[in-house]
Design a protein that fits this description.
- It is built from 7 helices and 4 strands.
- The protein has about 170 residues and is an alpha+beta fold.
- A 4-stranded mixed beta sheet has the order 2-1-3-4, with helices on one face.
- It starts with 8 loop residues before the first helix and ends in a 7-residue tail after the last helix.
- Bound molecules: FE2/S2 (inorganic) cluster (FES).
Length: about 170
């Protein structure tokens, strides 16, 4: 009987890189986007492989990726939180929500809590402006939020379980 060899992260990365045969910085963003879409984040190994492939320094790749807040360097948490930074949410206090979330979770946008339970991301308008300010947790929208609502809201997700229950 034939056994299937598992496809590793390296295989998947190699496949993406071979689709971009030319070295140079101009293909960096599309490669970063594809790798993140596939793996959910940019691992250290992936950044190093991309740098080698494009003949760029690792710090150059990190520098470019860090400039765009669409890229993350840690896997997403069990509960991924998106804070909308669109205009409607901004004028209704989304910066206060972000600040409170960062303090409650002790992470910055783009990071994941040590226990793997929560990750935080700032996103452009998520298409629910009538609910502003709005955040999305694991695909669920929370509307007209105030910063003081956040501790109880986070606790309700903690009660729903960690990564092993997901
Ligand atoms: S601005 Fe936040 S949902 Fe549109």
């Amino acid at each position: 009987m034939k056994t299937k060899t598992p496809v590793t992260a390296e295989d998947r990365l190699g496949k993406i890189l071979t689709a971009y045969p030319y070295s140079g910085a101009e293909t960096l963003i599309p490669i970063l986007q594809e790798v993140q879409e596939l793996e959910g984040y940019l691992s250290r190994e992936a950044v190093m492989a991309i740098a080698r492939h494009l003949k760029l320094s690792t710090s150059k790749v990190y520098g470019v990726a860090s400039f765009y807040n669409q890229f993350r360097f840690q896997p997403q948490g069990r509960w991924h939180i998106q804070v909308c930074r669109g205009t409607a949410c901004h004028v209704r206090g989304s910066a206060l929500l972000l600040g409170r979330l960062e303090r409650e979770l002790k992470i910055k946008a783009g990071q994941t809590t040590r226990d793997g339970l929560f990750s935080l991301e700032v996103v452009a308008c998520i298409g629910a402006c009538g609910l502003a300010p709005v955040i999305n947790i694991g695909g669920e929208y929370h509307a007209h939020l105030r910063a003081d609502d956040l501790p109880a809201l986070l606790e309700s997700y903690r009660q729903r379980g960690g990564p092993e229950n997901g």
